[in-house]
Write a structure and sequence with these properties.
The complex is a heterodimer of chains A (334) and B (327). Helix content of chain A is 32%, strand content 22%. By secondary structure, chain A is of the alpha/beta class. Chain A has one domain (13-271, 288-327): 3-Layer(aba) Sandwich (Rossmann fold), CATH 3.40.50. An 8-stranded mixed β-sheet of chain A has the order 6-7-8-3-9-10-12-11, sandwiched between helices. A 4-stranded antiparallel β-sheet of chain A has the order 2-1-4-5, with helices on one face. Chain B is built from 11 helices and 12 strands. Chain B has helices at 50-58, 85-91, 113-125, 129-142, 148-151, 161-173, 191-208, 219-225, 243-248, 253-261, 303-307; strands at 6-19, 22-35, 39-43, 66-75, 78-79, 96-99, 179-183, 211-216, 228-233, 236-242, 313-316, 319-321. The chains are: A alpha/beta (334), B alpha/beta (327). The A-B interface holds A 1, 61-62, 169-171, 199-205, 207-208, 211, 226-230, 232-234, 236, 252-253, 256, 266-275, 277, 280, 282-283, 285-286, 288-289 and B 45-46, 160-163, 190-196, 198-199, 217-224, 243, 247, 257-259, 261-266, 269, 271, 273-279, 281.
């Protein structure tokens, strides 16, 4: 959405991040590892924008390419084709120094708060290090002050800086992961399944914290999750991915109020909502996603309830229904 | 609760772990019963003791450090806690079976799935190798795996997560058990696959007339697939009721908190909306708790909650709650 956009304070041009025709292919090998078995199109022709100040939700099942996309944006994978523009500049052409500056502006929160913290480093060290690396000639006192401020921001007390990860609960560890990410004052934070490993009561605390931090620090989130409830709660705009392609994108209201792609509908029908028990059959969907397929067919066709011959021969392109709702389906347009 | 024959009756079960920090009372006086052909959902967060409860029923608690202190676990009248090792082995996999959360780690990676299913019927029903393999094919067919004749020769790594969980279900139901314990069976799966697996379990439950003890942290799953619900907190049942009654009006503040904390796909969406949270964390169970275990996280806390532990009382017909607010 971008309230800023609506108010006319920013123009369409001032995208924080633009992705154009991004592709990442992996070669898959079987037991005979020297032979190439096929091509996995992990991210296939993805174009999207992230607007400053918004939360863009990215939803899809395992293997749909959402984590690969996050890695591409972070510069941790090299794209097969396509380009990523950050504040209008192509990150592929970055110099060493530009990369360093880029790392300050784009940070990531990982899914697993158990695995993503160094067990032999105190919380304070983990949080303070990015800040220290960025501005070398700092005195210890300044770093300590910074760490204390960050801990307070994420709801931890300053004496907890001296503790090691194993002394924290899962929710607290995720708070440390968040503090580390915002330590260098990034503009874009990629959150890759940040609450999937947490209990519901803790999950709610972390989601609220992320919203508070967004308001306070003017953060932009790329929020990756497979949980539609979480995506609905957090996102201004939503992108639905299936096997490397965007199948539907639009505002939160459009995706959840008027889903057009059969896959989006399948996802929505599979939600088990404790608030709405009656009159609900879980799903009519069958099958599971498969990574390797012919390139020129609709990837959802094998599971699709409404597909026709056209879908076998032509990959549907993402078509704009309204200004802020697009769908990639030959039949889902009506 | 519901009519019908009681399959499993747990009475005042206490399981404890002796640790360096002290005794952790993981299951602290739990009583539950499951009627024939129904699903009982046990809901709670990590560390509430729900998995220890399941493992106690299977008698798979590592001793030491664990110990089942007291109680009875009656499976159709037979107290499992009084069986010797040999007798218990005959119960596991035959009368009670279990599905675990991780279908990746609970199958043997170096044995074909067919052989793993066949092993169970060979051991428990004395079938020959050939009969057992034929039966395995039948089971794969029943859990909806295509080309079962080919697939029995597959190893677990050749299958997807959803298919592996189907294999686990085939193994669990191979001997038509009276009770199936499912410990977070769909947590590791994608949402659409989760829905398929749950429906498969529901369908097979009816066909085999088995009962399910369903352990999960996901109230959504329980709302749609369980007839009775038990909410567990710090080793104790804090609320227990028929699903209809529970979801119509949950009584315990913890149950309310759990339901409210789930972000859902609601009709209206508000950017500024915040989720209701349950503040704080689960208490350290190695230390004795004075009063109610939920007191520090509860919005309705009263002086008595800090003094005395509430009893489980029947507030409404078949709807039990452990809270001073309702006492």
């Amino acid at each position: 959405m971008g309230p800023l956009l609506e108010m006319g304070m920013i123009k369409e041009k001032d995208m924080l991040l633009e992705i154009r025709g991004l592709k990442k292919y992996f070669h898959s090998r079987g037991l005979q590892y020297w032979k190439q078995e096929g091509l996995i199109r992990a991210v296939d022709d993805v174009s999207m924008d992230i607007r400053p100040g918004e939360t863009l939700g990215l939803v899809g099942e395992s293997g749909c390419g959402k984590s690969t996309l996050a890695k591409l944006i972070m510069g941790l994978e090299t794209p097969t084709a396509g380009e990523i523009l950050f504040e209008g500049e192509n990150i592929a052409g970055y110099s060493r120094d530009a990369w360093r500056a880029f790392r300050d502006k784009v940070q990531i929160i990982f899914q697993d708060p158990y695995a993503s913290l160094n067990p032999r480093r105190t919380a304070g060290k983990t949080i303070g290090e990015p800040f220290f690396i960025r501005r070398k000639n700092l005195r210890k006192k300044e770093i300590d002050e910074h760490v204390t401020r960050l801990l307070a921001l994420v709801g931890l007390s300053s004496d907890q800086a001296e503790r090691y990860p194993h002394e924290f609960s899962g929710g607290q560890r995720q708070r440390i992961g968040i503090a580390r990410a915002i330590s260098v004052e990034p503009s874009l934070v990629i959150a890759d399944e940040p609450v999937s490993a947490l209990d519901v009561s803790i999950q709610a605390q972390i989601l609220n914290l992320m919203k508070d931090l967004q308001d306070e620090l003017h953060l932009t989130y790329l929020f990756i999750s497979h949980n539609l409830g979480v995506i609905r709660h957090m996102s201004d705009r939503v992108i639905v991915m299936y096997l490397g392609r965007i199948v539907e994108s639009g505002t939160n209201e459009a995706i959840f109020g008027d889903p057009r792609h059969p896959y989006t509908r399948l996802l929505l029908s599979a939600i088990l909502d404790p608030h709405a028990r009656k009159g609900k059959k879980a799903t009519n969907g069958t099958g599971e996603s498969k990574a390797m397929m012919q390139p020129d067919m609709c990837r959802f066709y094998p599971r699709c309830p409404i597909g026709g011959d056209l879908c076998l021969n032509k990959t549907p392109k993402l078509m704009q229904l309204t200004e802020d709702h697009a769908v990639a389906c030959h039949f889902g347009i009506r | 609760m519901a009519e019908g024959k009681t399959v499993l009756d747990i009475k005042d079960l206490r399981t404890c772990f002796h640790t360096e920090k002290g005794d952790v009372r993981a299951v602290d006086g739990v009583s539950l019963s499951i009627s024939e052909g129904t699903t009982l959902g046990v809901v709670g967060e990590s560390g509430c003791g729900k998995t220890v409860l399941a493992l106690s029923v299977m008698r798979l608690i590592p001793i030491p450090p664990g110990e089942i202190l007291s109680g009875e676990i009656l499976l159709e009248g037979v107290d499992l806690l009084r069986l010797n090792r040999e007798e218990m082995r005959k119960v596991r996999g035959k009368s009670i079976s279990m599905i675990f959360q991780e279908p990746m780690t609970s199958l043997n990676p170096v044995i074909t799935v067919g052989a793993q299913i066949a092993e169970i019927v060979r051991l428990h029903e004395g079938k020959s190798n050939k009969e057992a393999l034929e039966y395995a094919i039948e089971m794969l067919n029943m859990v909806g795996i295509d080309h079962p004749k080919k697939r029995i020769r597959d190893y677990p790594h050749q299958m997807s997560g959803g298919m592996r969980q189907r294999i686990m279900i085939a193994m669990a139901l191979a001997c038509k058990p009276r009770l199936m314990i499912a410990d977070e069976p769909t947590t590791a799966l994608d949402v659409t696959v989760q829905a398929q697996i749950l429906e498969l379990m529901e369908d097979l439950k009816k066909r085999i007339n088995t009962s399910i003890l369903f352990i999960t942290h996901d109230l959504g799953v329980i709302a749609h697939f369980a007839q009775t619900v038990a909410i567990m907190y710090a080793g104790k049942i804090v609320e227990q009721a028929a699903s209809d009654s529970f979801f119509a009006s949950p009584l315990h503040p913890y149950s309310l908190g759990l339901i409210e904390a789930v972000p859902v796909v609601t009709k209206e969406w508000d950017r500024e909306k915040r989720l209701r949270t349950i503040p704080g964390m689960v208490p350290d169970m190695s230390k004795p708790i004075k009063g109610c275990a939920f007191q520090d996280r509860c919005g309705y806390v009263m002086p008595i909650c800090r003094e005395q532990e509430p009893e489980l009382i029947e507030k409404r017909m078949g709807h039990w709650v452990r809270c001073w607010k309702w006492a």
